[in-house]
Please model this.
Amino acid sequence: MANYSIWVLEYAYVPSYHVSGIVYGAHNQGYRKLPYCYVLIKGQGTVAMVDVGYNEKDVGAEMARRFGVEAWQNPETVLKQAGVKPEEVEHIFLSHAHFDHMGNTDAFPKAKFYLQERELSKWVWAMALDERFRWLNIATDPGDVMRVVDLARQGRLELLDGDRDDVLPGIDIRKADDTHTWGCQFVTVRNGDRKGSDSWVLAGDLVYSFENLEGQDPKAPTQYIPVGLAVGSQTNLLFTTDQMVKEGGGNLQRVIPVHEEGLRDRFPSRINDHGLRVTELCLADGQRSLVS
Ligand SMILES: [Zn+2]
Model:
C-alpha cells in the first residue's frame, strides 16, 4: 500500500564537476557528472514537488554557464514525462534558495510554496553584506529571492519556522538550520508508518552523493562526510544526515541525494530523448510506471 509515487526528474546536468565540491575534503579526486534534478510527488489527489530547478534566462542562465550546466529543459517538457503540467502542481517544498533549486518558481503559476523563514531572511541579510562577503552568494540569484518575496505578496508562500508534520497527509517537513545553507529543509514522504517503515527522505543538498551518506571507502564501516559546499557547519550537516537516515527507518538507501548520478543504478530509471534521466523511487497503488 503506497499513497504516493515519487520520481526524481533530471532537468539539466554538469558533465564535469569537481569532486571536492561534492564531498568535503575530496581534493585531487578529479571530476564527475552532476545531475540537476527536482522531485515530483503524486498521490492522494494532489501533485507536489521538491524544488523547481532554475530558469535558463537572465542571471539564472549566467550562473548555469559559470557552473558548466548543459542540456537544460523547461519544466513543461520534463513534467510531461509524468503526464503533469506545471499549472497542475499544487504544493512546492523549496529545500533551500540556491539557484538550481529555487530559480524557476515563475514556471508554476498555481502552486503554493513552502520555505523556512530563516532561509529567506538570511539570504536577504547576505545580500546586504559588503561585497567582500560575496562568496556566500556563490550559488544564489538575488532575483530568485525577490520572486519568492513576491509569492508572499500574492498569498502563495508559507514561511515555516521549524518542522511541520503532515504538511500534506503523510508528508513531513524537517528544518536543518546552519547546514548547507542557513535555513535548509528536507522532506519525508511516509508511505508506511511513522517509524519510517516505507519512508523516503528527499534531502535537497544536505547530501549530494552516496559518499556523503556512506563514506568513500566501500570496505570501511559507514561514515558520514559533509557536502563540499556549506555556509553553515559540518557538524550540523553530519547530525542532520543521521536524522535523515533515522527518518528513512535507518535505511541509508531511503535518503535520496538528487545530485547523485548513481541513483540510476539503485532505482528503476530511464534516459529520455534529451539525454535526461527519470528515476522512479516508488509508485502509488494503481499508478503506472514511467520507466518500464
Ligand atoms: Zn545548494
Notes: The helical segments are 58-67, 75-80, 99-102, 117-127, 142-153, 210-214, 234-247, 263-266. Residues 63 and 282 are 33 Å apart (CA to CA).
